Amino acid sequence: MLSVEEIGRLLLTHWSMLGDGESAPGRLSFLVVTKGRERVSKLVLLAFPGAASSPRFAVKLPRSKAVSANLQAEYHNLQAVAPFASSGRVLTPKPLLCRDEGGWLCLVESVIDGVELSQAAGVRPEAVVEPIVDWLVHLGRSTLGVRSSAGAAEDLPDLLERAQRYVTTDAERHVLSDVAGHLGRLHAEPLPRVFEQRDMGPWNLMVSRNQTLGVLDWESSCAGGFPAWDLFYFLAHYGFMVHRSDDRGDRMKTFEDTFWGRHGFSRTARTALRRYVRGLGLREEWLGPLSAACWLHHTLSEASRLGIRPSESLFWQMLTATLARGCRLSCAA
Amino acid sequence: MCAPRRQALEGKSGRDVPGWHSALDDQCASAPQLRRYASDPREGDCVRFLPSTRHGRALFLGNALALLPCLLAELFDSVVVADSNAARLALAQQRKDEETIENMTCVLTDSVDHVPPRLGHFHLVALGEERPDSAWSMPITDAAMPSRLAGSLVRGGCLMYAVRFPPLRAFAAAARPGWSARMPLFYRAHARALARTGFAEVKGYGRRPDMRPYQVHVPLDEPAIVSYWIRSGPRPARPRAWLRRSFKKALGRLGAADRLFSNYLVVARRG
After folding, report:
1. CA A90/CA B30 separation, integer angstroms
2. Which of A135-139, A288-292, B142-146 has the lowest mean pLDDT?
3. CB contact, 8 Å: B239 with chain A?
4. Do B237 and A121 touch (CB under 8 A)?
């Protein structure tokens, strides 16, 4: 695996690509962030040239060679969306360098300054949700039909087929059969396919002093994805954060309140959905099945990553809660 | 990497738990942080601070249940795990067998303060942590210990250990009459002590948060980065937090920001 010392040498070797015309510094120093608790998680090194007071690059490294491909995908996807990824008050990292060193990937991106949304005190939810919705609309409109060399999102029949491999109990099969009915009807509709970030949790949003927002972590992103999935995921998790819902029971209550409530954050969420639906020209009746498909996708990701049964995932509960409401989601005022 | 070992490193739970994990459960009942120490991948991220040329022999001295020796076994030709606790060592041996770590040897020692001469010389000596997260962890127990450890290292070999102390209790102890610390508390004094005993290059990394899992390593030899870390922390909304942050900034301006870290990793290279 690559050491901090090797990363420093690597960046200096490729300084002509990174330095923006500046002369190479004598050395690079790093602040190392190791948040993810899984073997598949990545390390992030903030690189400071010389005695600089702010980081110049963010270097992402895999903990195991097996996840090098995810970083490669992030690089290709960031390249694909680079022309339109930043808009309004929302910024995204610029992909600068991707090197394979004996199977260990090293991805270098520009730094987005700020603090994680969860640590930014005194930020009103609307001040975050509105620019994020506008940005998602912009990203969606700009990336209709955009392709990336990292591959495209799977289609709904493929998602259902993949789900069949995970369900093991009669209860799980029953839920899947219910979802299949809704997704079958959705598949026949003229859905626009957009570029998805696919990990739009508050932990990947940075808020700077001047209230710009940075969207980090594009390794799960994909071209040809589904509209509104990023927004569902973001609203659900931002709702957990706003309501400080930590345990599963609290989270489910918050989830139901966010998407079917009438007051507080649910009003913000409903306005966000309405704005998005109008912005991308979606039909309101698509929202329910689209959200069911989104929760099913995240259930399968979690089941595969953590080695759990689908019904053990919180996303599965979110899926069943959506189905229990007839797979209907309204954004009307 | 073989499948059982990979599963263990991924910390899988439930149906496919390896046997040594079950045995660890008993030990973790009274010390939940031990599970992180033994299986959280973040525990192994400190190997990134080792020099890029990693080969030869590594010695891990201390609590053998650590995840670190398993990762060192991937980086070095061979790893010796020496612990003075027979029960822990037996569990480490069970892990080694189940995860088929062939280049690891478990050795029972009288004390982890001394490296038994029979073990030979090493390219890395890593000291494990003996105490729970809320307690002191000062693996260098006396001023002569760095010199003893340096004697077990080949030229250019590295010593790695972590220091952790509860600041208020440490200051209270230091204020008591008759206090004479056998080793200094703060990083800079450690660096000086190591330099005196033949370590040509010493680096320190502040660990945050204070309790496991550690998620940020701040290079203590880089004042600009320490200042950045203080600046970029959560924006305080309450007066007490604001005062604390102002105090940190003031220490930074005085060039003493390393004193904010009562939990840090030291990597020293022998000259």
Report:
1. 46
2. B142-146
3. no
4. yes
Q: CA-CA distance, A316 to A297, in Å (whole number)?
A: 9
Determine how β-strand A222-225 pairs with β-strand A95-101.
unpaired
Q: Which helix (H) or strand (E) element contains residue B79?
A: strand B78-83
Q: At what angle do helices A265-280 and A248-260 cross, to 10 degrees?
A: 50
User: How far apart, in whole angstroms, are the C-alpha atoms of residue A188 and residue A163?
Assistant: 20
Token pair for A186: 């959705």
3-state class (DSSP) for residue A168: coil
Phi and psi angles of residue A181, each rounded to the nearest 5 degrees, phi first: -60, -50
End-to-end, the C-alpha distance of chain B in Å comes to 34
Does the distance separating the beta carbons of A119 and B234 come in below 8 Å? yes
Q: Tell me: pLDDT of B16 over 60.
A: no
Q: Is the pLDDT of residue B28 over 80?
A: no
Do B258 and B145 touch, CB atoms closer than 8 A?
no
Within an 8 Å CB–CB cutoff, is residue B201 touching chain A?
Answer: no
Nearest to B10 among A4, A39, A52 (CB): A39
* Residue A273 CB-density burial (10 A; 0-12 exposed, 13-18 middle, 19+ buried): buried
Q: How far is A285 from chain B (nearest CA, A)?
A: 40
Q: Among A13, A31, A313, which would you mutate to test the B interface (most chain B Cβ atoms within 10 Å of its Cβ)?
A: A31
Q: Is the pTM of this model over 0.80?
A: yes
- Answer whether residue A279 shows pLDDT above 50: yes
Q: What is the pLDDT of residues B91-128, one digit of tens each?
A: 899 999 998 999 999 999 877 677 778 888 999 999 98
Closest alpha carbon to A57 in A20, A112, A116: A112
Q: Which of B41, B48, B237 sits opposite A4 (nearest CB)?
A: B48
Q: Cα separation of A330 and A260, whole Å?
A: 8
Query: Residue A301: CA atoms inside 13 Å, Cβ hemisphere, count?
Result: 13
SS3 content of chain B, % helix, strand, coil (to 5): 40, 20, 40
DSSP letter for each residue of B220-248? TT-HHHHHHHHHTSPPP-SHHHHHHHHHH
**ipTM field:** 0.86
Across all residues in chain A, what is the average pLDDT? 92
